[in-house]
From TrEMBL:
Transmembrane segments annotated in the record for this chain: 12-36, 42-62, 74-91, 97-114, 121-142, 162-183
Cross-referenced SMART domains: HisKA (SM00388)
Designated name of the protein: Histidine kinase domain-containing protein
Keywords in alphabetical order: ATP-binding, Kinase, Membrane, Nucleotide-binding, Phosphoprotein, Transferase, Transmembrane, Transmembrane helix, Two-component regulatory system
Entries under Gene3D superfamilies matching the protein: 1.10.287.130, Histidine kinase-like ATPase, C-terminal domain (3.30.565.10)
Length: 371
């Protein structure tokens, strides 16, 4: 799943806006507010951003995109962005810079676009980069670039080690939590899309089946009328009359089956009404017919259950799907059992509820397909 249709090009476009924003912030904080005493290194980083974004833009223009190359381009873009953002924050008092939270945006982008452990890699990379800068500054092994806020006292003291550790822990934990939830949401959305595609496919199959049943049912009236005329002509011949009667009964079965298939496959909205659960089970078995083969035995244990508020056709669809899965799980034969019973004898919260059990003796669902 991608956010915009072309992720790598979208990042390049967004980065142009980010470059302009960085230049505006550097100029305003140094020239207008006086918060940034030494903007030169930041201007150098901003020019570097413009340069490598130009290279990415040229690369996108002359490259034929595919999923693998897009993912590789996004990976390198985010990697360079994280290093650049770290430098921008280092040259502007990283421990007190409010733009430290901007690392979160890259975690979200990585979590939505990249597969595998790439997003967790970037969370670790960001934690190491920021943690290393904070540690080196605290140990006074590298020069510092403090901001000068108007509210700072004349002899402003930088954050001590404990406060610095607290800032880093909060920063790193926010990154990892962001990555975790982003990846979880992406997986949920991907499963939802797969379910929607499957439902659309089943709806198409249902419409196809309903159309076929309609085409079968239309000529039946003519065939039955012809057979009725033939029966009148041969009514004096007992043997031929018996054959005609058998043919008429067979045509009636075909007609009933076609009508049941049409009723089952016709798309409907969900309408709650008083529903006979046992009747829905029996109607499902009629649609199932004898297609399950002779090596599978169907047993029913339908108890005395009250009507429930539900949608008969949706219930039949669920039961039919369960039956289909059960039959697939019994390639060598077995027993498919339907059981209904009333609930609530011991649990007052379930008074008036009805349970339906569909039990098969098949091989079960493989562990890797349980989701």
């Amino acid at each position: 799943m991608k956010l915009p249709p072309e992720g790598a090009r979208w990042l390049v476009s967004v980065r142009w806006l980010a470059c302009v924003s960085v230049l505006v912030v550097i100029w305003s904080t140094s020239s207008l507010m006086g918060v940034l005493p030494n903007p030169t290194p930041l201007y150098g980083v901003a020019v570097t951003m413009l340069a490598y974004n130009l290279l990415f833009a040229l690369g996108q223009r002359f490259r034929v995109g595919d999923n693998e190359s897009d993912a590789r381009s996004i990976f390198w873009q985010i990697s360079i962005d994280l290093v650049t953002l770290t430098l921008l924050l280092y040259f502007s008092d990283i421990s007190r810079n409010p733009f430290l939270v901007y690392f979160v945006f890259h975690m979200i982008i990585a979590g939505m676009y990249l597969r595998g452990l790439s997003s967790y890699f970037f969370a670790g990379m960001s934690s190491v980069l920021v943690g290393a800068v904070m540690l080196l500054e605290h140990m006074q092994w590298i020069p510092t670039f403090p901001l000068q806020f108007p509210s700072d006292p004349p002899n402003h003291v930088r954050l001590d080690g404990l406060n610095l550790l607290g800032v880093f822990v909060a920063f790193a934990s926010a990154l990892w939590i962001t990555v975790y939830f982003t990846v979880a949401i992406r997986h949920y959305v991907a499963r939802a899309h797969a379910e929607i595609r499957q439902k659309e496919k089943m709806l198409g199959i249902g419409q196809l089946v309903a159309g076929i049943a309609h085409q079968i049912a239309n000529p039946l009236d003519g065939v039955q009328n012809c057979l009725r005329l033939i029966g009148e002509r041969v009514k004096d011949d007992a043997r031929l009359t018996e054959y005609v009667q058998m043919m008429a009964e067979a045509l009636q079965r075909i007609e009933r089956t076609a009508k049941r298939v049409q009723a089952f496959a016709r798309p409907r909205g969900i309408t709650l009404r008083s529903t006979d659960v046992n009747g829905a089970v029996e109607a499902t078995l009629q649609v199932l017919g004898t297609s399950h083969g002779t090596n599978i035995r169907i047993e029913t244990n339908l108890g005395e259950v009250p009507p429930v508020q539900g949608d008969r056709y949706t219930l039949q669809e669920v039961l039919f799907n369960l039956c289909t899965n059960a039959l697939v799980a019994m390639p060598d034969g077995g027993v498919l059992t339907f059981r209904t019973y009333a609930m609530g004898r011991k649990d007052e919260d379930r008074m008036g509820s009805v349970a339906i059990e569909v039990i098969d003796t098949g091989v079960g669902i493989p562990r890797n397909q349980l989701e």
